[in-house]
Amino acid sequence: MFVLLTGAFGNIGESTLLALLEQNHQIRCFDLHTKQNEKCAKRLHRFGEFEIIWGDIRDINTTQKIVEDVECIIHLAALIPPKSEVDPDFTNTVNVGGTLRLIEAAEALPVKPKFIFASSISVFGPTMHLPPPRKADDPLNPTDIYTTTKVKCETALRTSTLPWTIFRLAAVPALRIGSEADETLFEIPLEQRIEFVHTRDVGTAFANAITAETTKKILLIGGGKSSQMLQRDFIAKILNAMGVGMLPESAFRVATKPEEWFYTDWLDTTESQRLLQYQNHTYDQYIEELKRAVGFKRHLARIFRGSAQKRLLAQSPYYKEPTK
Length: 324
Fold this sequence. Notes:
Layout: E1 2-6, H1 11-22, E2 26-31, H2 35-44, E3 51-54, H3 60-66, E4 72-75, H4 88-107, E5 114-120, H5 145-158, E6 164-169, E7 193-195, H6 199-209, E8 217-221, E9 228-230, H7 231-241, H8 270-276, H9 283-294, H10 296-303, H11 305-313
Parallel strand pairs: 1-2, 1-4, 2-3, 4-5, 5-6, 6-8
Antiparallel strand pairs: 7-9
Helix pairs in contact: 1-6, 4-5
């Protein structure tokens, strides 16, 4: 099948592209032309052939060009937190405007392609005051720019004339993690429920959805019960894998009200797993992969653990050094 993959060279894009190559699809990749994306594209060409169109999804001529002749669209391209929260107008033009142009271009084709959209479980808002797990028909509660754009895109797709599928994704950490802390790291309370899903499994889910009976379905994509944990365990294993070690609890935000919790939770993935058969990696397997990716730097971090932790703690707005 001829598949358009937008946001092809990001974390989930790379995993989806690899899964599409394994299934021998004809693939057209679309993304911004950056040095990082170009480097990723060259590396992935070792695994198979695919077409690349570089461009800006906000441009209507570009969206009309990239949908030509395709039979399925997997739409991943979007600004995500924290970048999405910096400039609301720009985020809306990319996330919502770009998606609307893509939908319009797809609707104009002689044969309407299946449109598979990457949303997020964050559209449910903070739900720690509710018993888990979250289900696809739970009420939506967008609480920031990013989640608001995702809800707008979901609505536009559901009211379109296209055969659509919406994925709401759980936490999908990359296989390569930089030395700087993500700005959301310290904003997530340690007692927060979180569900992990391996990036390669997400790629498999997108690829399998091309031919699976998922039309007009909203599916929650997570790792399953074995990947459900608290943020304390989730982040501790990542920091230990990097050789840094767990940071003091005082570095993390503490939630005392329902609205102060983060927007992650455990999911009911029964239907998505039945349809897509994608849950193939555990969180512990991911941690072992992360250790291998960090390599010798992990041992260096252990040696200089004090300075490494100090550098990370300097990025926390909550941490105060204990008085002697």
